[in-house]
Specification:
The chain is an alpha/beta fold. The protein contains 13 helices and 17 strands. It binds NADPH dihydro-nicotinamide-adenine-dinucleotide phosphate and ligand LTNE7NMQ. It comes from Alicyclobacillus acidoterrestris (strain ATCC 49025 / DSM 3922 / CIP 106132 / NCIMB 13137 / GD3B).
Length: 429
């Protein structure tokens, strides 16, 4: 028997979904007695080449051809963004259809409402593909690791920025060229500023930390810094000093208080996360019973993301056979305040541009000394226009001291700019 699917959107991810559903239909039919078939596909432009040939699938520009088709039991949403995806998903749920989505923008902001509507209508919403592309993260956190108090999430959860930083490091190309390649390869969002400015990783951190820490996390709870201000020279200096730069997402539950941040970070080359290159993602999870776990795999791209979407579809087909409806992943939520822990300690990387004059370095050293911020390494490079660049890696400082130093440096008469400040991840914790 055919189990009919409606697909909303057929771009990078949607086209992968069409191929993979076809490829696995026979196997699913053998397993469950139901053969998943994509019946109708919603797009904006019927004439566009999508890199996939359509067989029995019908393309339409009318959402009702899917949302009001009583034979369609599962709706897959790969449009992205908030509207019209939200309206379509809510209507599908209210019409009794199960939904699979890859849309982190939507789940991060409207996840609780969408899950509530699904529950009210006795249908499921699954969203494994919204975080980490092919890597199973939502499933393990909501199912396999529920026996744990999860205290730490830490990792690289944006493929585009990881690809850009990796290309800048290994092939010495500049930011714009690397971003254009990430777009060409289908890794970037339709508006790539959400990748580059850290929002995409922050949305994923909202989803992961809500599930892992059993609470409702909001995007505004997260300190977000992207990679736009990271220059090729920072990548080079980091390399010279024994580090690579990664956009790191960190969520920590300090006994009921959360800290949540996305920011570029120097990672020692010997650290396992330093070797996560290209569009790969990796996430460390620490649970009180499981200990440390690391998840690794392709975090973006057509088929890796389709793998997660179609995995959710197959779970639904199995559940339908068993007459089971997956409920909201969070169950009862505990309110947990999100705090800015000023006493957290890290080493810091500073890159300053100064007028190259005698005594400048002495005044910087004096300023660091009076803040009790000792320097571990210093590089000094002459640059154009009578200026010099000073790169300092400190010993561990509190966040308060690092911020105080940035403020105080602005008052130095020979300082041109504090161009880049990033924390340094310890080798191990
Ligand atoms: N790309 C990736 O690696 C990953 C993406 N995701 C998520 O998957 C989702 C899809 O991403 P991706 O495939 O890259 O996006 P694309 O931009 O490649 O595809 C979007 C598709 O949606 C269609 N669409 C857009 N607006 C409308 C509308 N108003 N009505 C009907 N159809 C519309 C487009 O139609 P048309 O082609 O006719 O313009 C296109 O087919 C997003 O939520 C993204 O965040 C998740 C993980 C990885
Ligand atoms: N733009 C995203 C796509 C996958 O979620 C990324 O680069 O990680």
């Amino acid at each position: 028997m055919d189990l009919e699917i409606g697909l909303l959107g057929c771009g990078t991810v949607g086209a992968g979904v069409v191929s993979l559903v076809r490829r696995r239909a026979g196997k699913v039919a053998d397993m469950t007695g139901s053969r998943p078939v994509v019946k109708t596909i919603l797009v904006r432009n019927l004439d566009k080449n999508r890199g996939v040939t359509f067989e029995h699938e019908r393309l339409t520009t009318r959402p009702d051809d899917i949302l009001r088709d009583e034979d369609i039991q599962i709706v897959i949403e790969t449009i992205g963004g908030i509207e019209p995806a939200k309206t379509y998903i809510l209507e599908a749920l209210r019409n009794g259809k199960h939904v699979v989505t890859a849309n982190k923008d939507l789940i991060a902001v409207h996840g609780p409402e969408i899950l509530r509507v699904a529950e009210e209508n006795h249908v499921s919403v699954l969203f494994e593909a919204a975080v980490g592309g092919a890597i199973p993260l939502v499933g393990p956190l909501k199912e396999n690791l529920t026996a744990n108090e999860v205290t730490d999430l830490k990792g690289i959860i944006n493929g585009t920025t990881n690809f850009i930083l990796s290309e800048m490091t290994s092939r010495h190309i500049d930011f714009e060229e690397a971003l254009a390649m990430a777009q060409e390869l289908g890794y970037a969002e339709s508006d790539p500023s959400s990748d580059v400015d850290g929002l995409d990783a922050a949305r994923k951190l909202v989803i992961l930390s809500s599930i892992a820490f059993q609470t409702e996390v909001h995007l505004t709870d997260i300190r977000i810094e992207g990679i736009r201000h990271v220059r090729a020279k920072d990548v080079r200096y980091a390399d010279e000093l024994g580090y690579v730069i990664k956009l790191l997402a960190v969520g920590r539950d300090h006994g009921g208080e959360l800290t949540l941040a996305v920011r570029p970070t120097l990672i020692p080359k010997v650290h396992p996360l330093a070797h996560v290159s290209d569009a790969y993602n990796a996430l460390y999870v620490r649970g009180d019973a499981a200990g440390d776990l690391m998840f690794f795999g392709r975090g973006a791209g057509s088929m890796p993301t389709a793998s997660a979407v179609v995995g959710d579809v197959i779970s639904l087909v199995r559940n339908l056979k068993l007459g089971y409806v997956a409920s909201s992943p969070n169950g009862t939520l505990t309110a947990k305040p999100v705090v800015d822990r000023e006493d957290d300690r890290y080493k810091y990387y500073f890159r300053l541009v100064v007028h190259d004059q005698p005594g400048v370095f002495a005044s910087i050293a004096q300023l660091f000394g009076s803040a009790h911020a000792s320097m571990e390494t210093v590089l000094q490079k002459r640059v154009d226009g009578g200026c010099a660049e000073i790169v300092i890696v400190t010993h561990e400082l509190s966040t308060t001291t690092a911020r105080h130093l940035v403020d105080e440096l602005q008052h130095l008469s020979h300082l041109q700019a504090v161009e880049c400040v990033m924390p340094v991840e310890p080798v191990t914790e």
